[in-house]
Amino acid sequence: MHASSTGSNACGDRRARRPGTRPTPRATRIIAVGRLKAGPEAALYAHYAARLRPPPEVTEIPEARGSAAEVRRREGTALLAALPADGVAVALDLGGEAPDSEAFAAMLTRWEEAGRTPCFLIGGAEGLDPSVLARADRRIALGPMTWPHFLVRGMLAEQLYRAQAIRQNHPYHRAWRP
Ligand SMILES: C[S@@+](CC[C@H](N)C(=O)[O-])C[C@H]1O[C@@H](n2cnc3c(N)ncnc32)[C@H](O)[C@@H]1O
């Protein structure tokens, strides 16, 4: 009688979560071109990443050499190779949609509930290869201006922290606007 309320699923897994409870948050993946060295950008990223539960898993792709197109293609191949099978590929891209923070938090909730790991792809100085943009499930812009890729890592971490605050109803995010 209580099978559904105790969380049994079709496979009889009694560890499955109960309806109305939150799934255990998965570690977000950040797959980014370039090695972030000690400095203000690394400090910014660390400041917000340390507040994320669980903290993101970062995979750094070495910067490629060659013409701009070759660099994009080589880095793009490496970025895509690092994507896990269950990942939602989210390209950080100037031409993408620009959700507000609440909509971004709602996206993360949906992916978590679907058991999919959000994987954020950040390009290098030459940007993301068209193959990455074509593969991406979502393309998200942090506004229409171009930001340095190491700063984008910190900005993304801040938005992930803000999304966590929104989802937990934490006062860090003040939704009210005049
Ligand atoms: C220096 S930018 C590359 C600029 C390149 N000309 C382009 O148009 O993508 C390096 C990376 O940072 C990310 N990025 C920079 N500005 C962004 C923005 N406003 N929104 C989302 N991602 C951005 C993208 O992943 C980009 O590939």
From TrEMBL:
Catalytic activities: pseudouridine(1915) in 23S rRNA + S-adenosyl-L-methionine = N(3)-methylpseudouridine(1915) in 23S rRNA + S-adenosyl-L-homocysteine + H(+)
Gene3D superfamilies, per the entry: 3.40.1280.10
Start and end residues of each stretch annotated as Disordered: 1-25
Residues noted as binding S-adenosyl-L-methionine in the record, renumbered to the chain: L92, G123, L142, G143, P144, M145, T146, W147
GO MF assignments: rRNA (pseudouridine-N3-)-methyltransferase activity
One Pfam family recorded for the sequence: SPOUT_MTase
Protein location: Cytoplasm
One cellular-component annotation, GO: cytoplasm
E.C. code: 2.1.1.177
Known role: Specifically methylates the pseudouridine at position 1915 (m3Psi1915) in 23S rRNA.
Protein family according to the UniProt entry: Belongs to the RNA methyltransferase RlmH family.
Subunit structure: Homodimer.
PANTHER family the record matches: METHYLTRANSFERASE, RIBOSOMAL RNA LARGE SUBUNIT METHYLTRANSFERASE H
Protein name: Ribosomal RNA large subunit methyltransferase H
Species name: Neoroseomonas soli
